[in-house]
Fold this protein.
Amino acid sequence: MSRRCLLLLGSLVFSASASLGCHHPQMKPDYSRALPEGAPALRKVTEASQMPDLASAFNAQTPALSEAIDKSLRWFAIPSTTQFYPLQPEGITHAQARASVFALKALLGSSTSGAQFQQRVQQEFDLWMSVGWNDKGVVLYTGYYTPIFTASRSCTDEYRYPLYQTPGDLVIDPASGAVKGRDMGGGRLEPYPTRAQIEHFPQLLGLKGRELVWMKDKFDAFIVQVQGSAQLKLTDGTTMNIGYAGSNGLDYASVNKQLVADGKLDPDHANLQAMIAFFHAHPEQLDQYLDQDPRYVFFKEYNNPEWPAGSLGFQVTPLRSLATDKRIFPRGCVTVAASNTPQAGQAPPVVTDKFTFCQLSLDQDTGGAIRAPGRADIYYGIGPEAGAAAGLQFAEGRLYYLLLKPERVNFWLDQMPAPPTARQPRRTTK
């Protein structure tokens, strides 16, 4: 999904946060650490000390939560979504995931207090917790949003940095949305070129004429790619909503992290403001660093109410849609995000398991930088205010999934109405 403002924004941030419990003093958190092959991303919670505060999560519900739940239910009603289940090695089935979302909505509607809700959830559901980056459940929560920029439909002296539409030779799996490569003819596929190759040799790659819009600033264009969506105020007086349409299929590499590694940024203040200041002072180094991120995102215009869409194809909901690694977590499911939200001008607080932020969310999106069990991104909305809030979200916590006990799945499936004919949105895999 979906950075213009001079703020700390999760997808671009690289700094050590305060500990959840304690890290070894010499050990820097590696939130992007991948799971060992075949290892589970979720672990069933059995200790009372690791249970989230479900009563607080109930009390923090808003109409937006119901809207987000309904979007997940609409997604689960699409027959093709069964391809993403069962999720192994945990063995989570499509029926269990779908019934869990329905049951959670029913309990929210019929519970009269937070205490009653917590008791009923514990009776009906198993709680599963992410193993986190360190196998101890520590997850870094960051924030993302949809920025607003100015842009032009045509190239000018002022607007000369393009955002491209999906190229014709990009081969994408129609079922999963995964990038298979570049069509070289004769049935031969090759990996799609890197960011550096795309930006420096667009004509050789057949991208001339595929420009969707032109941006004023190259770093702004990069920010839109990291966020995955933007609202553009065009020079002709119109507004264009754009969103993810595909990528070159290569993994994201943090520019911020490389700047820190090279000693260009202070690791304790390595936020977007520091990046912008650095590149304004050293514009000759912009290409050098952006070229080190091989991932490139393509865009399309959205003229439907599902903009900005998450990876499920439905509109993401501010503060209720979560982006996670869809290779290892069950998409569409209800989560409990337990964390802390730092205040403006303050460093992330030292935290324990007593969180100041605990709310129900839906796992409805993903992102190029969200690729491990130790990362999660909270969607904050559209525009500068959302960006300001997203910029403050940088804190450790725990990530839980609410899944019905296996023996309760059939009961709740029987309560569900027959699904109406569902119109499947175009998939957006990020």
